[in-house]
Amino acid sequence: MSTHPSRRSFLGHAAAGFSSLAFSRLAQAQATTEPPPRPLQVEHAVAEPVSLEVNARPIPNFEPRDRSRTRFGSLDYRSGLVLTSPFRGFGGLSGIRLDAKGERFLAISDQGGWFTGRIRYSGTAMAGLDEVEAAPLLGAEGRPITEKRMWWDSESLTRDGNLVYVGLERVNQILRYDFSKGGIHARGEPIPAPPALRKLPHNKGLEALVLVPKGQPLAGSLIAFSERGLDADGNLVAFLIGGPTPGQFSVRRTEKFDISDAVLLPSGELLILERKFSWFTGIDIRIRSIPLKSIAPGAVVDGPALFRADLGQEVDNMEGIDAHVTAEGETVLTLVSDDNFSMLQRTLLLQFTLVE
Question: Is the separation of the CB atoms in 252 and 300 below 8 Å?
């Protein structure tokens, strides 16, 4: 897509001007209110470990219409990149986790692939990606998970040291990887999951994972969020797995937003990344803050929106969020988009400073 202000009008007129093929690709790409199912074939799966080149084009302004603006809600824009690669399997990024310095990253695609590498900075601005490698997610048998029927839709990611957890949406399973046994070449073992989690909607199920570390309320709990699994009151279903108080709770759903990822800050704030899509307005992005201490079995939790953006800004189908704290004490949020391997979308890497 173009990066100047005509992006909004381009998508806004898609319903009138695009062919039926473009319609289906955009509908699939951006998680519509009732998204059609994706094809069963895993067209862009990573078949084997490989090093790859990723090209990065800077995004100097988050708001192209007002280049002087840097503040958006509670966030200050730091930098952004449009990522492309000649490697056919690059894209579909649905989850990301960074090291404590915000440099080394671990990401997953929604077609059963790992991506690792290093973010290169120029001062505080991201300048590119180096040392990028890809590999297939392996199952317990040591074979790519894509060989199992419907096991390819890896949508969520969280990490606790060498233990990495990956959520598979369509089968609503969680795999645990021990990276001390080969890193991205480790084998994933399914962990026990609540029966209600396994019954989440086929294509609106497990979408975000957060592991609560020591020193926080609910320490040791794995929090699993559905994209749009709804309870009897129309709120978004989530689960506490393990930890001191396992059980089910809900996140209040407002304005038809769906959950796409979440991250826990050292302060105890749980930030939930949400999105929605309309043929008339395009895609909208929101980040809500929810106190971790408010989460308990049976609770319905809610919190204020810290950030909102739409196609007037440089956003796409934002699916991943993580946070790190700089040496200067700034909390930096990193967002990544899932381009769904569509020519109408982009893989974006964005960073913002959270303003207290």
Answer: yes
